[in-house]
Automatic annotation (TrEMBL):
Belongs to the diacylglycerol/lipid kinase family. The keyword Transport does not apply. Its cofactor is Mg(2+). Gene3D superfamilies: 2.60.200.40, Probable inorganic polyphosphate/atp-NAD kinase, domain 1. SMART domains: DAGKc (SM00046). Pfam families: DAGK_cat, YegS_C. Keywords: ATP-binding, Kinase, Lipid biosynthesis, Lipid metabolism, Nucleotide-binding, Phospholipid biosynthesis, Phospholipid metabolism, Transferase. InterPro entries: ATP-NAD_kinase_N, Diacylglycerol_kinase_cat_dom, Lipid_Phosphate_FormReg, NAD/diacylglycerol_kinase_sf, YegS/DAGK_C. Residues 4-137 form the DAGKc domain. This is DAGKc domain-containing protein.
Length: 304
């Protein structure tokens, strides 16, 4: 029998992810993958646009692109790979790692993550939907959740701080934002029907979690051709504080102020509304979010 050709993998690295964890995990992942017989081309560049361009150039010679980093780096590569049929794998090395959770990739061990990726390549990749965000200045895909409202204000605040690092910065920003946050008068268009809705939060979910495991849409599936719309209507600060921790378990579902529905498209606008997706700032312009069915091949654990 002819010998089998080794797997050819492009390893796209965000070395600054999670205070340098990205670089450490990239070195470990490259060594483990090579030790298991794969040919690995490591991609490191000085900017996101340069890394995306390098990944694009690698596609003709790659069986898969594996991202070492957080959700922002994964989002970058998902936009490169959308519609190409070349699968995306993830070695989680960020703060949130919600796409890795969606794919069932272990968060703590590079060796275990590599095992999932190689098994998925052996069995064949899955194909998932993506969310697509369109606005006057362009468009962008996302894998997990797009959101506007309280969480976006928290991200805006946290991103302006240099200290503390990691999850502590996000938690502190939550507490600080609570002092001044007021419900936002959103202008929504849900599957073509316009409505005005004051809300604390509007999320459009392709996957179940954002913000490092907050299960905002616990029933969301990334392969059903639909998006899950979550609207949190106005709450007092004490009531919001009572509901907020439940999101990590998905136990906010059923609360009278929480409305969930499945949709195909959502328009979002309103004063001061900023949209984030996969933890990254997208735009402060009005957007239309729709589902892009079967847009991305991924390396996922079985049964997720």
């Amino acid at each position: 029998m002819p010998s089998r050709s080794p797997l050819r993998l492009a390893l796209a690295v965000n070395p600054t992810a999670h205070a340098g964890l990205g670089e450490a995990r990239a070195r470990e992942a490259a060594a483990v993958l090579r030790g298991r017989g794969a040919e690995v081309t490591e991609l490191r560049r000085g900017s996101a646009s340069e890394l995306a361009a390098a990944a694009m150039q690698s596609l003709p010679d790659a069986d898969a692109v594996v991202v070492v980093g957080g959700d922002g780096a994964v989002n970058l590569m998902a936009n490169v790979l959308a519609g190409t049929g070349i699968p995306l794998g993830v070695i989680p090395a960020g703060t949130g790692n919600d796409v890795a959770r969606l794919l069932g990739v272990p968060l703590a061990s590079v060796d275990d993550a590599v095992t999932v990726l190689l098994s998925a390549l052996e069995e064949g990749p899955r194909v998932l939907d993506l969310g697509r965000i369109d606005w006057a200045g362009g468009h962008r895909h996302y894998v997990a959740v797009a959101s506007a409202g309280f969480d976006s204000r928290v991200n805006e605040r946290a991103n302006a701080w240099r200290w503390p690092r990691g999850q502590a910065r996000y938690t502190l920003a939550v507490l600080r934002e609570l002092v001044s946050f007021r419900p936002i008068p959103f202008e929504l268009v849900v599957d073509g029907a316009g409505m005005a809705q004051r809300a604390m939060l509007v999320s459009v979910a392709n996957g179940p979690s954002f913000g490092g495991g907050m299960r905002v849409a616990p029933g969301a599936r990334a392969d059903d051709g639909l998006l899950d719309l979550v609207v949190v209507r106005p709450l007092s600060i004490p009531a919001f504080l009572a509901v907020f921790p439940k999101v990590f378990r998905g136990a906010h579902v059923g609360h009278p102020a929480v409305e969930l529905s499945t949709v195909r498209s959502v328009g979002i606008g309103g004063p001061g509304v900023v949209v984030y997706a996969d933890g990254e700032r997208v735009t402060g312009d009005p957007v239309t979010i729709s589902v892009a069915p079967r847009a991305l091949a991924v390396l996922a654990a079985p049964g997720v």
